[in-house]
Amino acid sequence: MPTIAEILARELDKPLAHVQNVIDLLDQGNTIPFIARYRKELHGSMDDTALRTLEDRLSYLRNLDQRRQEVKNAIDGQGKLTDELSAAIDSAATLAEVEDLYRPYKQKRRTRATVAREKGLEPLALLLLDQGRDCPAPEEAARDYVDPEKGVETLADALQGANDIVAELLSDDAAIRKTLRELLRRQGHLRSLAATEEDTVYRLYYDFDQPIAKLAGHQVLAINRGEKEGVLSVTVLLDRELGLMTLRRAVVRPGSRAMEFIKAACEDAYDRLIYPSLEREARSDLTDAACEGAIANFGLNLKPLLMQPPVKGHVTMGLDPGYAHGCKVAVIDGTGRVLDTAVVYPTYGPRQKQEAIDRLSRLVRRHGVTHIAIGNGTASRETEQMAVEMSRALGGGVSYMMVNEAGASVYSASKLAAEEFPEYDVNLRSAVSIARRMQDPLAELVKIDPKAIGVGQYQHDMPQKRLDETLSGVVEDCVNAVGVDVNTASASLLGRVSGLNAATAKNIVKYREENGAFTGRRQLLKVPKLGPKAFQQSAGFLRVPESKSVLDNTGVHPESYAAAEGLLALCGYTLADVSAGRLADLPDKIKALGEESVARQLDIGVPTLRDVAAELAKPGRDVRDELPAPILRTDVLDIKDLAPGMVLTGTVRNVVDFGVFVDIGVHQDGLVHISQVCNKFIKHPSEAVSVGDIVRVAVLEVDEKRKRISLTMRGVPKDGETDPDCQKTAR
Q1: Which of 41, 218, 221, 488 has the most CB atoms around its CB within 10 Å?
Q2: Residues 400 and 372 in one domain
Q3: pLDDT digits (tens, 9 = 90+) for 168-189
Q4: How many whole angstroms separate alpha carbon 320 and alpha carbon 545?
Q5: Last residue of a domain, one of 450, 474, 493
Q6: Does the pTM of the predicted model rise above 0.70?
Q7: Domain holding 434: CATH number?
Q8: 623 backbone dihedrals φ, ψ, rounded to 5°
Q9: Helix axes 48-77, 464-482, angle to 10 degrees
């Protein structure tokens, strides 16, 4: 029997030693970001995604082991555990297989078979099921079991009871269920029909039939929701004769006198017990797979959204559009500090619009605003037009960006927002959040429940615990990849750092408020409840720009400080050279000395050496600065301005199973269907693009009435080049 580590090594195609090391590190309480970044030698430089996959499978396999033991103990308690059954349970590869093996021994509610057994009919059932050479005809065999005192009045009663027992035995047979389950997966269809005459968003599924093997996750989730809302009627179909033939082939012995009886019992078992159960299983499995796919896609979209390049150091105006309550305005400085607020009413009429432009113009001049962030919700079109007119009136110098405001209202009404901005009402807090999203998307978005950020599908239909775990992992990985300034970060951001939690994050903020800015990483050990383990896990991800040691403002872990200083000495540098950015020749000097030789001298691994060298070369670097900058606009397009063939540059807003939604500067995002993403075949749009990518698209079709824009990326070159496959700016 292979060990869990051996199974994982085979599944993930990783060396056994590396897999075992990761298991040991996880069991010791190390976090995924810490393992990924600072224990590369032990796992062969797996990335955080691979490590989380390993962690998920490890949890599943351990739960499987636990369930195997529980089942064996339960069967053994009945005195029915044989060596053969124990071996079968041990070799079961899934929880479903374990449950199939346990099924005959599981305590059941009172069934027809239970009643028949109470009447003493089990020996008759077993005799007929055996279909031995000496098996009598069923009617003949049943004579001995007619007993009015037991409620068996006639031969028909005896045979019906025997049939009930045989049907249940067949239904409980693990091998039969496995065979039919696999048949259903290969040959089954999902059928949905309209349960209403009304035109709804589910009209695509009013007469829908698709092989189970070809169903897309978004189709399953849409059908499930339509069924839940009473709009769709859904069934799983399998050719009945094919299913019965498969069952009979496994059970019926040709030539037996009991053959016809067993064939009839097969039909009863299939129609009454087996197929309804397998249909429920199939629906459940389809839903689970669709949810896992949707959750994975959510995480895939969330990561680039969080890692959008910040627009740093600019005085920014945040506009939260609205009709009834006006457009909320917040001006923040380059550090996110609120300088001014206002409310204007550009949608109330021409006079009010001009008043709004005049007031915003004064705010721009007073504070030196260079960038405007506009929420993309209600009244955003009118607000965008106003911002463009204002910029023209000012003679230029102000650019704007449409910001996805999903979740802003959730944040503005939260306890956290009230603590941050007790002096502002809910609406103004939202404007501050929109402005800050432009300046530093990661720092702002971590304050919001990831489910509310707006880059997934059917998130409310997902298993919430699983969704939360996955998205929290993505947020954690992003925060730690960027690093956090311990002296400016909010408690929300600090709480996402490896090794820290909400309590220790609040304690860090409280400590710096009471004692002033941190001046070194080691000072963190003075924070209440932040012990050596938490320090080990978090220190490398926390930056201290105010420290006298430049190493405290890098991703070099304190445990590698000696190695970093040794590397500098070997190559003829000092820490002062690091601060001054005079390490341009460091890679060449390491190459000349030989990586492996240098690593041995410093008593570190080559991966750690490379990481240390990269950090020394760019102290305080932000990995997001290396990504393409977001698109800043100075003019506005209307859907009426679009025409087929027009080539535009846009930003990917969402990636779903069936395509890509792209912001091209009009109020409505355009859709690039999966068939239009690449010239080559792709299984999923995420193979080609990610949220935040800057892409070149051409307009295929515009439907003004339905506000739908169809786009293509096929054959649309990027500026200055031709790419025959996929057109995007690489992240």
Answers
A1: 221
A2: yes
A3: 999 999 999 999 999 999 999 9
A4: 33
A5: 450
A6: yes
A7: 3.30.420.140
A8: -60, -25
A9: 150
